[in-house]
Design a protein that fits this description.
NAD; 3-hydroxybutyryl-CoA dehydrogenase; 301 residues; N-(1-d-carboxylethyl)-l-norvaline Dehydrogenase, domain 2; 11 helices; alpha/beta; globular; Rossmann fold; eight-stranded mixed sheet; 2 domains
């Protein structure tokens, strides 16, 4: 007997919302994209290209059909997310699971205004959401086990690898690790140890390629924990442990060097170079993920 097609609503038609909608459409989910800004909605429709034909678009949350789940994917601002989640809850029945796509805002903080927080769960997708496999699944203190299980089941149906956190910490797991790495990278730049291009080469073509095949803990097992401990004993005291963002980062932002979106960050960007880079990145990501996924657990003990 064929399973009933899932119905989903994505609230927020920005970059993440659009790639989430594409993920749903590709996997046969009946998806509706909601955004109060008609121009943003139209841009999302254009970016979805052929997938727009099977996607519904709306400027309000009036539900004609009860969705299985709703994913909030608006700007990373707790007040905005609280307001949107409250609107979503008022628009669906108590059985509908509500997910928040946040990069690290505490789930209880976003869900503090909810009437039924038991059906609320964090799902941190990574950009581009239609390609990157892992999704951090983050329960709040009120989230029911059944909610987590259903969310993981749906994510698996979408071809994702749900990774459940035991407890919610600011930044979750991925962003904590990413920011720890960036803190040391910025420190090395500030100290004049290395130039930006060389630093990127070192990270991308050494630990970067290795981490695509082995997680850090698996890699430590392969290297030997005793070796890691010996290095840690002399290296940890010399690593950056700043409690404030790097002065270099503060300086760049103050000068308007915000990255590719304005044409200048650590590198210079044009519209053409950015478009080329993003297209190449998507293509390479798919190939890397395919290689990493091949027998990914076949040799584990």
């Amino acid at each position: 007997m064929q399973e009933k097609a899932l119905r989903a609503v994505v609230v927020g038609a920005g970059t993440m919302g659009t790639t989430l909608a594409k993920l749903m459409a590709v996997n046969g989910v009946k998806v509706t994209v909601v955004d109060t800004n008609p121009h943003v909605l139209e841009t999302s429709r254009q970016r979805l290209a052929t997938h727009a034909a099977t996607t519904c678009f709306a400027t309000d949350l009036k539900m004609t059909e009860v969705p299985d789940f709703v994913i909030e994917s608006v700007t990373e601002n707790v007040e905005v997310k609280q307001k949107v989640v409250a609107q979503i809850e008022a628009s669906v029945n108590d059985a509908t699971i509500i997910m928040t796509n946040t990069s690290g805002i505490p789930i209880d903080e976003i869900g503090s205004i909810m009437r039924v927080p038991q059906r609320f769960v964090g799902t941190h997708f990574f950009n581009p959401a239609d390609i990157v496999p892992t999704v951090e699944v983050v329960p709040g203190s009120h989230t029911e086990v059944e909610t987590v299980e259903k969310a993981c089941g749906w994510l698996t149906q979408l071809g994702k690898r749900p990774a459940v956190l035991k407890t919610c910490v600011p930044g979750f797991v991925a962003n904590r690790i990413q920011h720890a790495v960036m803190r040391e990278c910025l420190s090395l730049l500030e100290k004049g140890v290395v130039e930006a291009e060389a630093l990127d080469d070192i990270v991308q073509y050494s630990i970067g390629v290795r981490l695509a095949l082995n997680g850090p803990l698996c890699q430590r097992d392969l290297n030997g924990l005793d070796t890691h401990l010996h290095i840690a004993r002399y290296l940890y005291p010399d690593l950056d442990a700043s409690q404030q963002p790097a002065a270099l980062l503060e300086e760049y932002v103050a000068k308007g060097r915000l990255g590719a979106k304005v044409g200048l960050g650590f590198y210079r960007w044009s519209d053409e170079s950015l478009a080329r880079h993003q297209a190449h990145e998507r293509s390479k990501l798919k190939r890397i993920i395919e290689l990493a996924a091949q027998d990914s657990h076949g040799d584990e003990p």
